[in-house]
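Aim 2 progress update. The chain analyzed this quarter is reproduced below.
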Amino acid sequence: MAINSLKLRPILLHIFFWMCFLAIPILLGPNTNSSSPEDVQRHYQWTLFFVVFGLHNIPFFYFNTEFLIPKIFKTRGILLYLLCLLASIVFMVWYHDQLFAWFFDDFFEGGGRGGGRRGGTSLRIVFQLLFVVAVGISYRFLSDNIQEQESKKEEEKERLKSELSFLRSQISPHFMFNVLNSVVALSRRKPEMVEPVVIKLSELMRYMIYETNDSKVNINKEFVYLESYIELQKLRFGDDISIDFKSDICKTPSSIEPMLLIPFVENAFKHGVGMIENPTIEIDLVDTPANLIFSVRNKKGKQIEEKKDDSSGIGLANVRRRLELLYPDTHTLSIHEEADTYQIELVIKHS
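Predicted structure tokens:
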């Protein structure tokens, strides 16, 4: 139904335009109560001729807009277009002059009545044809410009959609890479904990595969996903790290791009655990009717920063780009780095 409506809309607009154009003499006609019978008869003749004349100009209008402009002007140049347009106007003037002669001399059987009017008819026809040409050129260039803008928007939309799909596809491998590293480390330190960790990992994978196909997910689902990831890290590190995860979600939770928040948490565990005394990670998730506020704070070590591998930073660079694409004017990402702490705060305004 929507597609048919889009196709019918321009057709209906064209029909409406020509109906209004042909109705001009009727709308501007004399008052039948105060006008003489001769004036009414004369207006009736001119109205009938105007309608016949207008109906013959409709093909000329579309000949100019659908053939001359796209096929001649835009491919062969303006000079050939003007020559073809001039030839068309000359033909139309001759044709309408013949039509005028037949209309008044034969149709109304009044050669004398028509003969006096024919002197200035050709000039009036030229001006009316030029008006039709001007309207046609304006219509064609405006229509082409609108189509070009729509095409550019559609191309940009598809480009952003492809880029977002690519960015989202990067999250899963990067996430799995980090988690599998955690499982390997846990198998060496606490092999008895590998089984519950794998079970928790399967829950995370289920969300990643089945719940993230939509462009937006309920914030509660993202919260559960974050909670499962944090539980997995607790199984890995035990009491070696202090993790404080607090949340405050309103009764009507908002929606969010799936797996948008996890890179910040991953980054905290990657750089906030290691040669750090009493490592601490604090995570706050607040969802209000106006904003979504997410903050992650972790301790930093004072040791010399080791050389990063090729995959380091993919998560944060990825999420920055996704935020630029999805929330270009409605998000604020703040990073506060001090000597022993690192904190990010993300604020997304609800539309």
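Residues 109-117, 304-312 have pLDDT under 50 and may be disordered. The longest helix spans residues 121-189. These observations will guide the mutagenesis experiments scheduled for the next reporting period.
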